[in-house]
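Student:
Attend to each token:
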Amino acid sequence: SIQLLCCRVLIQFLNLGVLDPSFPKFAFKVLPTLARLCKSDCDVTHRLEAAELVFDLTEKHKELQKCAVNTERLVNVLISYLDPVDVSNLTSVQLGQQIEMKSVAIRALASLCANDWDTAAKIMKVDAVRALLIGSLEESDRRMRKSALLLLLSVSRSIPVLINHLVLNNQQTPANLDFPVTTKTANSVESICDPLIKEIQRVSNVSSMDCGGDHNDSNDDGDEMQVLASSVLCNLALPFCAGDSIARQYLIQKHLVHSLCPLLHSSNSQLRLNGVWTLMNLTFQSSESTVASVLEILSDDLLTSLILDLSGEVCHKTASLLLNLTNIHKEVPDILGERVVGILSCVFCGLANSELQELLILVVTNICRVPQLRIGYVLGNEKLMTDIRSIMSMSSSGFCVKLASVRFIQSCLTGGSIEDRQRTFEVLKCLNFADSIEMLREEMPQQHVFHSLLVHLNLGKDSIRYSY
């Protein structure tokens, strides 16, 4: 008990910043002590507390996770917590302890494999872990659901490890990373994805309830569960191996896009971030039907509020989402081009973040690849064009923003008919873009592209035949 208390105090010093993770006693004293107290010959209450402290110690510190994995078979000891037990003769107290042991063991294992694919693969090979992971996702006990989500989040950082070992759970032959879709494989993916979708759908259920009365901690805990579930879905929505994973395909088929809508309206910034981030992953090199589904739930007001969100991460991911939407097709749909240009013309001047400005200029550049959209919406929007020219001329604008602006002008001068290019030339000339480019050439003489652009803007219509 005294040793556990000493470990707890040292871990609290770490979490408060009094001690650094590199403090040698963590690796050479605290972790070995906790590993010893996790073993089966110790008292159950001590084993519970020791496993919980392993989680507290390693949750946020990658170097301590590596130390813990290499400490006295700690991973195997924690896995032993999950061994099946005959509950017929257990008292209610003992039954509660068994549930708690499984919960803390899963949390500790989730922490240890959070940044280590080899450890994640080792853990997922264990039958008891896979069975408990899938079963706990729909468990009525909140502690078990939360622990399962934590482990799933850690393992989902390596999608091949997660799906491959779930497939192995149902098939005797090894699965490869191409994941041929079989009934058993699909069932494995379904057993993971469906509970996650149900978990994030609780957001809409909670928001539709009466908001009156006192707010208690259970709402915060519910938000935490939904943050974990949406984080896992965000990872599962990523494509890999130069194509879609079956998890990503399944999520698209289950209309995940519509389930994410309540997250985008949530008052919780982390839920908004996860919602936008998942949409960003789903729309990367995706189909036209997926893009249409995303556009269906993204109203102009919602997109505007997300771009201007108080959370910088939400703004950035929203801009990346727009970049994906406009980068998917050889020709951006008219309705998308019109909506995006209209939104950006309203918000551009209020943006101070240079990285966000760069992304949004690249979005407009993508739209300009389609001559009719360039002429109809971009060049015809004087406010947007003036804002881009102002950003080019501002001394506070970063190098990448200015270079993105130059690429925008390049895109404007490329493609389309001679008449279209002549009109583009006239608009750029009228708005004094040549002066802005001259200033940039003086600032960045190593960028030879400025000379070419100035030639085209100063010589007239014969010069706009150039392409890059």
Q: What stands out?
A: The two ends are 72 Å apart (CA to CA).
